[in-house]
Amino acid sequence: MEWSSRRSIFRMNGDKFRKFVKAPPRNYSMIVMFTALQPQRQCSVCRQANEEYQILANSWRYSSAFCNKLFFGMVDYDEGTDVFQQLNMNSAPTFMHFPSKGRPKRADTFDLQRIGFAAEQLAKWIADRTDVHIRVFRPPNYSGTIALALLVSLVGGLLYLRRNNLEFIYNKTGWAMVSLSYIHGSSQAQFVAESHIILVLNAAITMGMVLLNEAATSKGDVGKRRIICLVGLGLVVFFFSFLLSIFRSKYHGYPYSFLIK
User: 95: which strand partners?
Assistant: First the structure.
């Protein structure tokens, strides 16, 4: 409890592992991450998993349900090689649950390859093994907001620099000429440039679908997956709207539109 008051995860070498995890009697469960975080190990997955593990441990440490029945620890390969040898462990990262009574069972080893290492998945696994339910709280991610602010600032700056010559924005004839130059007004014909434009639009929609699928099926950081999902959704929505607008302009009387008319 004293260690947990100072940090959510306490690092252990071989001696501390045998004293606080393996030695009986013990009236608490331990979740231990076996990892290799030293730069020379070049384990990028270990660093990503460590971030999720830290989020999970902090969520438990600062929750109202925090008690002395569950603690989080970590053993780094370079600090506890003997522990890895004792457990016949030859891969990292690995998450294990050490119950308060008895030896760990097969289900007490987290199936990282199948489920991934997101904090929410780890919390669900811990609930199954210990009946301790942890609500995961993630720190706010402002990367999307910052990117949007930079984009708005860039566009606003460009418009400010050309503040004395903004007639092109309201020039409907100019926009119509651009459209007529590349998009044929009839459904019976199609320009070569128009074919290329349609190809690019369909490619952008396909890329958006690929990003959405990647966000749904990948096992990486949840924050990055959320950003990928938003980017993919934006690509699909915007470019499908553009494609539908071109179709509407060629097939006069087509009643449906989306965002762009």
Answer: 33
